[in-house]
Design goal:
This protein is an alpha/beta fold and 154 residues long. It is built from four helices and nine strands. Strand 1 and strand 2 form a beta hairpin.
């Protein structure tokens, strides 16, 4: 069981591993209607190779069930020769602490490359950026509003 911030519902939610139930603020308590229930959307990873970096587009929910897959994919990209990554997180609706660990592991690995690389984040939802700020990880990443800006920074 994990507690994390859901950017879609804009409230704290409790995840049990099968479904995410978020009661929309301002609605009656009790069993939520179908429109009030947010079912887990599988995390998707799309990679687009660029000249100076890889654009990694993430979507869905990054939770304890799939964070290890994300970490392995990011580390494989870095070890495969691309030291700079742009993580496009505009379609990410949820990130748990194992998901944050995956981002941190990728940043550490990229910075240990010779010459050093970097992982930057673009199009992140304000609520998810707030989570990074709350745990102190915002100092380790550069943030961009658009993917184009992030890719152009390399």
């Amino acid at each position: 069981m994990e507690v994390a911030l859901n950017a879609t519902a804009r409230c704290w939610t409790l995840s049990t591993g099968t479904a995410l139930r978020a009661t929309i603020p301002g609605t009656p308590r009790g069993v939520p209607e179908k429109s009030q229930t947010r079912w887990r959307r599988k995390m998707e990873i799309r990679v687009e190779a660029m000249k100076r970096c890889d654009l990694v587009s993430l979507s869905g929910m990054i939770d304890s069930a799939n964070a290890q897959d994300l970490e392995e994919k990011l580390l494989d990209l870095i070890e495969g020769g691309q030291k700079n990554l742009v993580l496009s997180m505009g379609e990410v609706t949820f990130i748990s602490s194992p998901g944050l660990k995956a981002l941190l592991a990728a940043q550490i690995r990229a910075r240990k490359k010779v010459p050093p690389g970097e992982v930057v984040i673009s199009e992140i939802a304000p609520n998810l950026k707030e989570v990074l700020e709350l745990v102190g990880l915002h100092h380790l990443f550069r943030f961009y509003d658009q993917d184009v800006e992030a890719v152009g920074s390399f």
